[in-house]
Design a protein that fits this description.
Blueprint: E1 4-9, H1 16-30, E2 36-41, H2 47-54, E3 60-63, H3 80-85, E4 90-93, H4 96-101, H5 106-118, E5 122-127, H6 131-135, H7 139-159, E6 163-166, H8 180-195, H9 199-204, E7 207-210, H10 215-222, E8 229-232, H11 239-249
Bound molecules: 2-phosphoglycolic acid.
2-phosphoglycolic acid binds near residues 173 and 235.
Length: about 250
């Protein structure tokens, strides 16, 4: 069975005192680890604090985006090597907010994915359709295009170093979760598409679901055959909720 992963996406939330309280609670509860992995993806300025508080614990951490470039005159950008300097294991790539608010298209996302892999990080590649696309019945087409761009740039060897997160845009931060079956169907589609190139890798790859995951719906979602954990936004900011979701993944 694939191991489950629950990754928190803090987005642009946090503050030194608040982070400390949250991370301390997670460390106390998760301790030396359980049967699921638990990670937090924090804003850049808090990576040092996160590293300090989580080092040596069962929790891992990461960032929410990175530059596609290794170094150079790119004011405001942060490279994979810089994230690695702060002990990051994960980096989100292609989150729908990056795609829609910051104009990151499939090519840019693919370039960032390659930079993450080259920098020794595990990219969490986010894929997802908008409500309009779902209603227009082009969900699979959209997901396939997002996935194929990355496979083309990074190859299946690159994919082997990644985690995928299916996040329907209409379910992010809206309280409207995909039904377990809707999510399962897309997860199965992603796995089948990868299996066309590499059956063993498709079987082994973790595919997380994200979009209004809460303690109340986590058990049912994580119980689906192709859902290997979650990418958690809002509920990742509340220790009790995040821990309950981590516990659901360990069932
Ligand atoms: P949400 O966010 O859990 O608040 O819907 C998920 C995400 O954006 O990764």
């Amino acid at each position: 069975m694939r191991r489950k992963l629950v990754a928190g996406n803090w987005k642009m939330h946090g503050g030194l005192a608040r982070n400390r309280a949250l991370l301390d609670s997670l460390v106390q509860a998760v301790g030396t680890g359980g049967s699921a992995d638990c990670a937090v993806c924090v804003p850049f300025p808090y990576l040092a604090q996160t590293q300090e508080l989580l080092k040596g614990t069962a929790l891992t951490w990461g960032a929410q985006t990175l530059s596609e470039h290794a170094q150079g005159a790119y004011t405001g950008e942060v490279s994979a090597a810089m994230l690695a300097d702060f002990g990051c294991r994960y980096v989100l790539v292609g989150h729908s907010e990056r795609r829609s608010l910051y104009g990151e298209g499939n090519e840019t996302v693919a370039a960032k994915f390659v930079a993450a892999v080259q920098g020794g990080l595990t990219p969490v590649l986010c894929l997802g359709e908008t409500l309009e696309q779902r209603e227009g019945e082009i969900t699979e087409k959209v997901i396939a295009a997002q996935l194929d761009a990355v496979v083309q740039a990074a190859g299946m060897n690159g994919l082997a170093k990644a985690v995928i997160a299916y996040e329907p845009v209409w379910a992010i931060g809206t309280g409207r979760t995909a039904t377990p079956q809707q999510a399962q169907d897309v997860h199965a589609f992603i796995r089948a598409r990868l299996a066309e190139s590499d059956v063993a890798l498709a079987q082994r790859l973790q595919i997380l679901y994200g979009g209004s995951v809460k303690p109340q719906n986590a058990v049912e979602l994580f119980g689906m055959a192709d859902i290997d954990g979650g990418l958690i936004g809002g509920a990742a900011l509340v220790a009790e909720d995040f821990l309950a979701i981590c516990a659901a993944a360990a069932k």
